[in-house]
Specification:
The complex is a heterodimer of chains A (314) and B (751). With 314 residues, chain A is α+β, with helices and mostly antiparallel strands. In chain A, 25% of the residues lie in helices and 18% in strands. In chain A, a hairpin with a 2-residue loop joins strand 10 and strand 11. In chain A, helix 5 packs antiparallel against helix 8. Chain B has 751 residues and is α+β, with helices and mostly antiparallel strands. Chain B folds into three domains: 168 residues, Aldehyde oxidase/xanthine dehydrogenase, molybdopterin binding domain (Aldehyde Oxidoreductase, domain 4); 201 residues, Aldehyde Oxidoreductase, domain 4, CATH 3.30.365; 305 residues, Aldehyde oxidase/xanthine dehydrogenase, molybdopterin binding domain (Aldehyde Oxidoreductase, domain 4). Chain B is globular. The chains are: A alpha+beta (314), B alpha+beta (751). Chain B: One of its GO terms (molecular function) is iron ion binding. Chain B: It is an enzyme of class 1 (oxidoreductase).
Chain lengths: 314, 751
């Protein structure tokens, strides 16, 4: 890890300003992903802006329209345990608890989780080409080891997947990402527009602008329904999903978002008007481009969705 | 003491202290963080500089360009070692009578057998072999500067695929093949047969503590605190590499955070720390990074195994064929997967063949139960398939084919020293409730879960090694035990202390014990499951010598009894402590062996019974319960032995369901080189495991009457799991690990 300079931000706008004031600055929350990547020199920040002490960012509060506003630095463990989340947004609580380990959930933050980076093997190996790590160097995963990687929304430059569980639940809940710019301007980015597909620029993963700082994630008024998060994985805990399904179903209500099959949490709203798991899955996976190693994910999406719709898995 | 006749009654039979489930004598300091591991001797080397190894980024080829200027100029950097400035080092010399030396085990090994030269040229033989070693004032500076070493490679064409290599594989010179009777004729003529191929992947030992070394010179004397399973192998390995006499190197390895075979070899951390410490005139330490461990150090090589089993309608084996292919670097042995098939079951017509392909992947080595762990997956899996073909209970099939003498050695009758495989099967089956198993696959459901039961037998060859101990009766009556034996987490401290306490008739808390220093009497070390039995046999020998010395000093007969802190004979009883009233009494001895290992087949046995649940939706497999019965001669400590078995069973479940190094055949390396992507079981994967020890004593193994237990736990587990999966689903996966993508295409359509 390279030497870095460090400062603690005391306000959200101050954090945004600090990050543009230094070349190579990064915000740091729990550090559960950034520090690992920095040690391997996959991330090479020269300046860290610690946002964990910004007053107010660690709060969960109701919004005027009956929803919930989750501060950027609310820890995954706290969020999962919040009684309002457990009651009204159970899919979020379940997604969080299926991720990482208790120790990591105690550190990891809400905003940081949205920004966690792919687990593609080659992204982690600085001696190998990776367009996401070194633009233009090539994609080692295409034609290499890609069993866990994306099957939809892929490009010729990158087939990396987004590994977050929390973000998949946020997607099915229609969350919004609140931000502040260095000049104090604020906006809310719908979660659907927050993460991007790799295209020809796989190193760009969100629509955040330089210096733009996430202050909170908002959840709209509860929609009720049966909420589940099914995570399919190679071991019983402490493993990234091969496929996950965040679901909200009820009378006149069906919403599904899928994890670990794309560069972003994957949801196809059009498909939710269809009947039957296979029809929905077919629409969700339209244009899928799988490899010999990860083709099984297509069947896995069908089967897991089907079981979810029959209420067979939690 | 030479052990060349079966043991008669001896003081170990009292079992007042031996066998009892004592807590580890080193347990308290370990959980309190006070047991120093090799990287943690901060107090004795406060001025240590930090070394960071740079590993090659290609699997085969050459260093084309190397620029170390930025690294050398980086803050805090003291030294950058590369092939350009590294001293000449020496590797293994060809086996010739003139250069061979008597090893401590009494067998001949080539000079430099444990040597590990580093940085000897531009040629790259394996991914992550050392190409540079950066030393700086702090760990952070060294790590940062290591990234500044700029290397250009010209990649060569390597051989990285066992599937391809197997086509041109050669007979493996390290394996003992066997041809007994007329295999082909018997197999062709048999009524019932299976002919199936199993495959196992490369696996990593993935122990917790990384390989690490602190190197210090004093004049021409080198001291290494280094994480290694056998202190004299690391001593000889480093000395031979550097071309200095063995007695100029001292290796200390008091505590080891797991090895599983990986720490039987010397690596870049030890050699390069030693070189850098000499160049800089100050201590240097280095720990391999987690990604380096997966490619720089050894692993379990892959196998392809063809099993051909033929039986009569009564289940008796008529023909057993086990043909295996493995791959490794030139001169390395690969995975010897036919080992267990020599001894496990009868059958008059046998064919055991082993082929090896030369691969340019990282060098293979030993990993817990090398040979058996992979071989039993295939043999016991095929036995389960044979039972299915016979419509016979798999336990009964094994019992029918039990033997009490070596079924493969032809030229002489070689009985087993103590074989209780059938007892393991019966006791395990009873405790598990095997009689309630539904033999027809795919019949048991629990909601959306498919439930299945499977079983397998296990065997691990028993090995013994020469081992020495020094025992001192100190003034005040305390006993000090010193041996170069290591404790890699197994319980060597505890069982050697128990042995001394038992032999000298003192409570366990009167014994102090020191291990893991090459200045102590040369010992068996930890490998091949020989350590527990062999090192306690060495302690037994030293204690017998001490008893003789004490008895002589006190005018007691040689056969005096040492019990309750007293020496007793002929109605006389004197306190043991009084023998040291005028100064300590010291005795040292080494246990050596005759040929009982050859005249008797010695092995430990196991039987595993397993229940799995397979999601009918996703194909995810989870083990729900497992009962395993073991026969390993005398159990020296019921608690530490059970822990060894639990660890082996856990590792076996991991091998069955998740462990695999993923080979990138373009770059020639294992790409999943961290513990996020190389999966081993977590707590949630492991249910309550039930361990049974079947009563046994092995009078041919050593005066301790014990056998190896450390590797036994893993032997056969994978086949029990795979057979349970087959019973649950009707799908037989013959390719480790059994991940859901291999089951999914065969599972019934949901709803």
């Amino acid at each position: 890890m390279r030497a870095v300079t460090y400062e603690r931000a005391t306000s959200a706008q101050g954090a945004a300003q600090a990050s543009v004031g230094h070349k190579g600055a990064k915000f740091i929350g729990g550090g559960t992903n950034l520090l690992d990547l920095a040690k391997l020199e996959i991330e090479t920040p020269s300046h860290l802006v610690d946002v964990t002490r910004v007053p107010g960012l660690d709060r969960i509060a109701p919004t005027p329209d009956g929803g919930l506003r989750i501060g950027a630095t609310v820890r995954n463990a706290e969020l999962a345990a919040d009684p309002r989340v457990r009651r009204d947004y159970a899919v979020l609580s379940r997604a969080l608890l299926s991720g990482a380990s208790a120790q990591l959930r105690n550190k990891a933050t809400t905003a940081g989780n949205l920004l966690q980076r792919t687990r593609c093997l080659y992204f982690y190996d600085t001696t190998k080409p990776c367009n996401k790590r070194v633009p233009g160097s090539g994609c080692s995963a295409i034609g290499g080891l890609n069993r866990t990687l994306a099957i939809v929304g892929v490009s010729d430059d990158c087939i990396a997947h987004h590994p977050s569980d929390m973000a998949v639940a946020m997607r099915v809940l229609d969350a919004g990402v609140e931000t502040v710019m260095p000049d104090g301007a604020t906006r809310t980015i719908p979660i659907a527009d927050f993460h991007t597909l790799p295209g020809k620029t796989p190193w760009i993963e969100t629509t955040l602008k330089p210096g733009e700082f996430i202050t909170a994630v908002t959840l709209p008024k509860p929609v009720g329904g049966r909420q589940s998060y099914t995570k399919v994985r190679d071991r019983a805990s402490y493993a990234f999903a091969l496929v996950s399904v965040a679901a909200i179903t009820g009378p006149g209500l069906q919403r599904f978002a899928f994890g670990s099959i794309a560069h972003k949490p994957w949801r196809v709203e059009d498909a939710e008007r269809l009947k039957g798991a296979d029809a929905i899955a077919d629409r969700v996976l339209t244009g899928a481009r799988s490899t010999d190693q990860n083709r099984f994910k297509i069947a896995l999406v069908h089967r897991t969705l089907d079981a979810t719709m029959r209420g067979e898995t939690a | 003491m030479k052990f060349d006749k079966p043991a008669g009654p001896n003081p170990t039979d009292r079992m007042r202290i031996l066998g009892k489930p004592f807590d580890r004598v080193d347990g308290a300091i370990k959980v309190a963080g006070q047991a120093p591991y090799s990287y943690e001797y901060h107090d004795i080397a406060p001025n240590a500089a930090y070394g960071v190894m740079v590993g090659a980024g290609i699997g085969k080829g050459r260093i084309a360009t190397m620029d170390t200027r930025d690294a050398e100029r980086a803050p805090g950097v003291l030294l950058v070692l590369t092939h350009r400035n590294a001293p000449k080092m020496f590797g293994q010399q060809k086996k010739q009578n003139t250069t061979s030396q008597e090893s401590s085990e009494g067998s001949e090994e080539a000079k430099g057998a444990h040597a590990a030269p580093q940085l000897q040229g531009r040629d790259i033989k394996q991914h992550d072999e050392a190409v540079a070693f950066v030393v700086a004032e702090t760990f952070e500076q060294a790590t940062a500067a290591a990234h500044l070493v700029r290397i250009g490679y010209s990649a060569g064409k390597g051989r990285f695929s066992l599937t391809e290599g197997a086509r041109n594989a050669k007979p493996n010179p390290e394996a003992e093949d066997a041809h007994v009777g007329d295999f082909d004729g018997a197999f062709a003529a048999a009524a019932v047969k299976v002919d199936v191929t199993y495959t196992t992947p490369n696996q990593s030992q993935a122990m917790m503590e990384p390989h690490a070394t602190l190197a210090m010179w004093s004049g021409d004397q080198l001291t290494l605190h280094t994480s290694h399973q056998i202190t004299h192998w690391s001593t000889e390995g480093v000395a031979d590499t550097l071309g200095i006499p063995h007695d100029k190197v001292r290796c200390v390895c008091a505590y080891i955070g797991g090895g599983f075979g990986s720490k039987l070899e010397v690596y870049g951390d030890a050699v390069l720390s030693a070189v850098a410490a000499q160049k800089l005139g100050r201590p240097v330490k280095c720990a391999l990074t987690r990604p380096q461990i997966f490619n720089h150090t050894t692993h379990r090589p892959p196998t392809i195994q063809r099993l051909q089993l033929a039986a009569g309608r009564d289940g008796r084996l008529l023909a057993m064929g086990h043909t295996t292919w493995t791959g490794d670097q030139e001169g390395a042995r690969g995975e010897l997967a036919t080992e267990q098939s020599r001894l496990m079951y009868g059958g008059a017509n046998r064919k055991l063949e082993t082929y090896i392909a030369t691969l340019d992947l990282p060098k293979g080595g030993s990993m817990r139960a090398p040979g058996e762990a992979a071989g039993l997956f295939a043999l016991e899996g095929a036995m389960d398939e044979l039972a299915e073909a016979l419509d016979m209970d798999p336990v009964e099939l094994r019992i029918v084919n039990d033997v009490q003498q070596d079924p493969t050695t032809q030229d002489k009758v070689r009985p087993f020293s103590d074989r209780k495989l059938v007892e393991c099967m019966r006791q395990g089956a009873a405790k598990f409730g095997w009689d309630r198993r539904n033999r027809r696959p795919g019949q048991m459901r629990d909601g959306s879960l498919l439930i299945g039961h499977g079983m397998a037998g296990g065997i691990r060859n028993n090995m013994v090694k020469a081992s020495g101990t020094r025992v001192t009766l100190q003034s005040g009556g305390r006993v000090l035990v010193e041996t170069a034996m290591t404790d890699i987490g197994t319980g060597s401290y505890t069982i050697n202390a128990q042995t001394a306490a038992e032999m000298l008739g003192v409570p366990l808390d009167r014994v102090s014990i020191k291990l893991g220093d090459s200045l102590f009497p040369k010992a068996a070390g930890s490998g091949g499951s020989w350590g527990g039995n062999s090192s306690t046999a060495g302690t037994y020998a030293a204690c017998m010598a001490l008893r003789t010395a004490i008895a002589a000093r006190m005018g007691m007969p040689a056969d005096a009894e040492f019990v309750d802190g007293q020496i007793r004979a002929g109605g006389r009883s004197i306190p043991l402590a009084s023998a040291a009233a005028n100064g300590p009494v010291v005795a040292e001895d080494t246990i050596t062996y005759g040929d009982l290992e050859k005249t008797y087949a010695q092995a430990s046995f196991a039987a595993h019974f397993c229940e799995v649940a397979v999601s009918a939706v996703t194909g995810e497999v989870r083990v729900r319960r497992m009962t395993s019965a073991f026969s390993a001669g005398r159990i020296l400590n019921a608690k530490t032995a059970r822990s060894q078995c639990l660890g082996g069973m856990t590792m076996g479940i991991g091998a069955a369901l998740m462990e695999a190094l993923q080979v990138d055949e373009r770059f020639g390396y294992f790409a999943n080189h961290d513990l996020a992507e190389y999966h081993v079981p977590v707590h949630a994967d492991i249910p309550d495991l039930d361990v049974i020890f079947v009563d046994s004593l092995d009078t041919k193994s050593s005066p301790m009457k014990a056998r190896g237990v450390g590797e036994l736990g893993i032997c056969g587990v994978g086949a029990a799991v795979s057979s349970a999966v087959a019973n649950a689903t009707g799908v037989r996966v013959r390719d480790f690990p059994i991940t859901l993508d291999k089951l999914l295409p065969h599972l019934p359509k949901v709803a």
